[in-house]
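Per your request, structure below.
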């Protein structure tokens, strides 16, 4: 039987482009669920003709290429500059992500106001001084943005607003305004009539991001893109979006509290894993330059089940108080409830406490939480969690001037952590005169040193 000349379209992953002959629920390349969709046709390989290098773009030895210093322009917000590595870089593409209502638009409107009020970019003098910022919103009208700007005090003649969803129109506004900074809120709302699919789809997001980044590189124009997030907290759209941009920042915070954190997940011009602290107020969002006391309780008397530790977020040391509550349980399966700490890590610590410290926890409910809504993800908080649980079990409070820093192994040994000297220095600055760390050796010795220090 002759083979049919018709070639089936097959299926392709919208995230990474992986192809399959039939539909599958999970991509075999990037392991994402629900991203394999029907494709219009198979990719056809075409021969690519070699081109002669243009003048001035020939390949040269790396030792002959000059190292141009990357100049950061401060935004006027110290916590944001800390996260970005000193400020925005000309031609940089920055992606801001975060949950709805966390304060992304409020923060970026403040950035736009301060940027417009500051001096213009060197070599681009403006009449009357100052700079120009184009704020393109696809989610709000210009009147709504004006109302929020009046409430937060972000009005300035150099701040230009436009409400537009068409990608070509936004690019035309950039040509007309000639700004020093562009803010697009958000990239998932832009669509191009030349690309198939609705706004927010992988093809549209990819085209919008590529066009804006291309303009940023050609004009040495910093561009800030706001990105939506999915239920699991990742940036919505194709994974390629995070690879295209230069900086990825995630804005997070609990709606029940006023504290907000800005974390950098990727930064080609500065350090990663840096953190900035902000506070939501009635008049907008304000930075918190020294958040050292935000994650500690204000109790004047020692309370059992509490222990302080020092977390390291980028180059910043943050003291955090860990609280534990242990109560008898009548249920066959006692509860293990955590807030602000990793549940799997707490379960391992409880097992080590039963085996190495002789604590009876198999018939008790255990609750472990942090103060202030901060989340501890590093192993340096293991010892503080263990001492807080032991203090709750024996109902013996730890001294108020005691802090614990260390990683706990399954053998009950306390291992040193990264940045121990910086953590100890911050603990001493805040008045913690007693420090339990890897010098204690084992969990049993740390327990004796902590509980007997009273």
């Amino acid at each position: 039987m002759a083979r049919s000349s018709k070639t089936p379209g097959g299926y392709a992953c919208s995230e990474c482009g992986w192809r399959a002959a039939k539909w599958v629920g999970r991509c075999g390349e990037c392991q994402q669920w629900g991203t394999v969709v029907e494709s219009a046709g198979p990719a056809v390989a075409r021969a690519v003709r070699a081109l002669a290098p243009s003048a001035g773009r020939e390949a040269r030895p790396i030792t002959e290429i000059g190292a141009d210093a990357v100049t950061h322009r401060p935004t006027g917000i110290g916590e944001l500059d800390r996260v970005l590595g000193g400020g925005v870089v000309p031609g940089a593409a920055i992606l801001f992500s975060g949950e709805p209502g966390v304060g992304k638009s409020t923060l970026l409107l403040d950035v736009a106001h301060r940027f417009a009020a500051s001096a213009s970019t060197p070599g681009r003098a403006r009449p009357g001084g100052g700079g120009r910022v184009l704020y393109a919103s696809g989610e709000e009208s210009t009147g709504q943005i004006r109302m929020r700007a009046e409430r937060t005090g972000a009005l300035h003649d150099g701040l230009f607003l436009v409400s537009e969803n068409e990608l070509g129109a936004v690019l035309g506004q950039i040509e007309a305004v000639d700004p020093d900074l562009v803010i697009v809120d958000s990239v998932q709302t832009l669509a191009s009539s030349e690309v198939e699919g609705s706004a927010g789809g992988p093809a549209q997001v990819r085209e919008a991001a590529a066009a804006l980044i291309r303009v940023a590189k050609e004009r040495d124009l910093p561009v800030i893109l706001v990105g939506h997030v999915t239920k699991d907290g990742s940036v919505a759209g194709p994974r390629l979006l995070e690879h295209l941009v230069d900086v990825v920042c995630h804005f997070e915070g609990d709606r029940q509290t006023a504290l907000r954190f800005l974390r950098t997940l990727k930064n080609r011009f500065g350090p990663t894993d840096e953190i900035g602290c902000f506070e939501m107020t009635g008049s907008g969002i304000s930075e918190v330059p020294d958040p050292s006391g935000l994650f500690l309780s204000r109790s004047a008397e020692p309370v059992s089940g509490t222990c302080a530790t020092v977390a390291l977020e980028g180059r910043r040391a943050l003291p955090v108080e860990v609280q534990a509550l242990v109560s008898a349980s009548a249920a066959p399966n006692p509860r293990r409830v955590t807030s602000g700490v990793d549940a799997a890590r707490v379960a391992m610590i409880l097992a080590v406490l039963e085996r190495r410290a002789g604590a009876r926890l198999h018939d008790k409910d255990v609750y472990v939480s942090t103060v202030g809504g901060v989340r501890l993800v590093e192993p340096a908080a293991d010892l503080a969690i263990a001492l807080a649980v032991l203090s709750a079990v024996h109902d013996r409070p730890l001294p108020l001037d005691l802090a614990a820093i260390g990683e706990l192994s399954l053998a009950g040994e306390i291992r040193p952590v990264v940045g121990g000297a910086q953590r100890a220095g911050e603990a001493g600055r805040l008045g913690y005169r007693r420090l339990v760390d890897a010098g204690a050796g084992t969990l049993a010795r740390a327990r004796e040193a902590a509980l007997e220090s009273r």
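The chain has three domains: 10-38, 72-287, 306-451.

Regards,
D.
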